Amino acid sequence: MRSPVPRLFVLHWDNHKVLSKRRDKDDWHEAYGTLYPTGTVTLDNGMFYRTMGELRAAYEAMGSYRVEFLDEEKEEGNQTIG
């Protein structure tokens, strides 16, 4: 049996819950991430989370977010969101 491998994903989020005068508050942002077999998560913007739950809580506090795992099959016209 193969040992578990890291899973790659794309995180999309906005900052609509954050009080700010910045214009990009409602713009969608994107970062690539890795979920390691140990449960830890890193993003290409330098952020580190101990668990996927910790990442989800952080981005939910900022606004809307979506996690799209790259190893999941995509059906025609529909994206599978993890």
Structural description of this entry:
The chain is α+β, with helices and mostly antiparallel strands. The protein has one domain. Helices cover 13% and strands 29% of the residues. The chain has 1 helix and 5 strands. The chain has a 5-stranded antiparallel sheet, covered by helices on one side. The chain is elongated. The two termini are 24 Å apart. The C terminus is likely disordered.
Quickly list its features:
82 residues; alpha+beta; 13% helix; 29% strand
Q: From the alpha carbons, calculate the radius of gyration and give it in angstroms.
A: 14 Å
Count of β-strands: 5
Q: Enumerate how many helices there are, as a single number.
A: 1
Structural class: alpha+beta
Helix content: 10-25%
Give the H and E element order.
Answer: EEEEHE
Q: Could you say which overall geometry the principal axes of the C-alpha atoms support?
A: elongated
Share in β-strands: 25-35%
User: Which strand order does the major sheet show?
Assistant: 4-3-2-1-5
Mean pLDDT: 86
Structure, briefly:
The chain has 82 residues and is of the alpha+beta class. The chain has one helix at residues 52-62, and strands spanning 7-13, 29-35, 41-43, 48-49, 65-69.
Question: Would you spell out the secondary-structure blueprint of this structure?
Answer:
Blueprint: E1 7-13, E2 29-35, E3 41-43, E4 48-49, H1 52-62, E5 65-69
Antiparallel strand pairs: 1-2, 1-5, 2-3, 3-4
